[in-house]
Design goal:
Layout lengths: L1 H37 L5 E2 L5 E2 L10 H7 L8 E3 L15 E3 L3 E8 L2 E8 L5 E6 L2 E3 L5 E8 L2 E4 L2 E4 L4 E4 L11 E2 L2 H4 L3 E6 L9 E8 L3 H5 L3 H9 L17 H12 L5 E2 L17 E2 L16 H6 L2 H4 L20 H12 L13 H4 L3 H5 L2 E10 L6 E7 L14
Length: 412
């Protein structure tokens, strides 16, 4: 009897030990899952120590804004190359960029894409360069970047949307040139964040594991690890915590968010690097343009929309107008003329909703404020050479200098 009781006791002990181990394993596993949920994966770390977690985390609470933002040129301004986002053709006959002394042939190998180089009248062999990063949403064109280990370069072949063809990248000569190093100042308007590696003679070395492509939520609202962690742990909370609230910013702080990329080259670096500025800070403490002190200088329509807007009477006559007065950064608005005209009429409704200009111009008769007062204008800063025998062609970009223009200045 004692033997049986001893055997039962041992079996019972084994069962309890098994249950205990199983319970411990369950809690360990679910504890990790809980930890992962309340502490989302960090995809990059800002210079100030704040952590980026990627815009996908915003979808949990802001699904509508997130899904609409995916369609914007901002979000699609930079991405890892794949067959869905590279606009240039790789089909035989449409895949060649023929320049004066060099020919570039674009070829694909499954989901990989390459620029092959043939220097005319020479037997020099140049290894093919891979298309790794696409720059530009394709509205006007795209350029492409290639990795050489951790060093980043621009390819000589770009894509030009109006002609649906390969063109020489802006600034490149018509002969073969060494790949152009891409520094953080080049990336800042197409990438939410890129971590530079110090030991780089050309300033084009980056940590590939800490690059966030496109301009996403965290570029304007700041790295969101604390925000996401808090609201996942406190789903009943109604007040937004640990994120930048745009409505709480001053006018200049709101303008600075856009001025990072829309106020010229800002090639005078005063503090840190091109990604050191943090939303809500004073942008002028980090960078400025060399010509900021010259108020009479002519501003090009490409890249300095902020400077042009600031010179407009519409802007100077109000203390509240900023970029978001007319633009919703969360939505694709390009081509929606009625929407932008409505913004103009919304401010000028106390005067008149019909244009006083008596003319046959159909745009004016349709009250098209934008075409008359913000005409598209050739950029002298952004130009491309379409063929080896052609002159450079300007990109036409809508000016943000809101003014009264002569009829011969109007462009659709």
């Amino acid at each position: 009897m004692a033997v049986i009781n001893k055997k039962v006791f041992k079996n019972t002990l084994v069962i309890f030990m098994f249950l205990g181990l199983a319970t411990l394993a369950y809690h360990c596993k679910n504890g990790k899952m809980e930890s992962d949920y309340y502490n989302p994966e960090v995809v990059a770390t800002h210079d100030n120590g704040e952590h980026f977690v990627g815009s996908e985390t915003c979808m949990e609470c802001h699904a509508d804004i997130y899904s609409s933002h995916l369609k914007t040129a901002h979000f699609n301004s930079g991405a890892i190359v794949d067959s869905s986002n590279i606009k240039g053709s790789f089909k035989e006959g449409s895949n060649i960029l023929d320049l004066e002394t060099v020919e570039f042939i674009m070829r694909s190998d499954g989901e990989d894409f390459y620029q092959h180089t043939r220097i005319k009248n020479r037997s020099t062999e140049i290894p093919p360069s891979k298309f790794d990063i696409v720059i530009g949403s394709g509205v006007r064109g795209q350029s492409y970047l290639t990795w050489d280990k951790d060093d980043l370069y621009q390819l000589q072949a770009s894509y030009y949307t109006p002609t649906d063809s390969w063109v020489n990248s802006p600034g490149y000569p018509t002969y073969y040139d060494e790949p152009r190093p891409i520094r953080d100042a080049c990336l800042k308007c197409h990438i939410t964040y890129a971590k530079s590696v110090e030991a780089s003679p050309n300033g084009n070395r980056f940590d590939k594991t800490q690059m966030i492509y496109g301009i996403d939520c965290e570029r304007c609202h700041g790295p969101s690890a604390k925000h996401v962690g808090y609201h996942r742990g406190n789903p009943e909370a109604t007040e937004s915590k640990f994120t930048l609230k745009i409505e709480d910013l001053s006018r200049q702080q709101r303008l600075d968010l856009c001025a990072q990329c829309h106020s010229g080259l800002r090639n005078v670096i005063l503090k840190g690097g091109s990604f050191s500025y943090f939303p809500g800070e004073d942008l002028s403490r980090f960078s400025q343009n060399a010509d900021d002190t010259d108020k009479e200088i002519s501003l090009d329509v490409h890249g300095n929309q902020y400077g042009l807007l600031a010179r407009s009477e519409c802007f100077k006559q109000t203390a509240t107008m900023d970029c978001s007065t007319c633009h919703d950064p969360h939505r694709k608005e390009r081509g929606n003329t009625a929407n932008f005209n409505g913004k103009c009429i919304g401010c000028h409704r106390d005067r008149a909703t019909a244009c006083y200009n008596k003319t046959d111009n159909s745009d004016i008769m349709a009250n098209d404020c934008i075409t008359c007062h913000m005409p598209t204008t050739p950029s002298q800063a952004m130009m491309v050479q379409l063929t080896k025998d052609s002159l450079e062609t300007s990109f036409n970009i809508r000016t943000h200098l809101i003014a009264i223009y002569e009829k011969d200045q109007w462009r659709n």
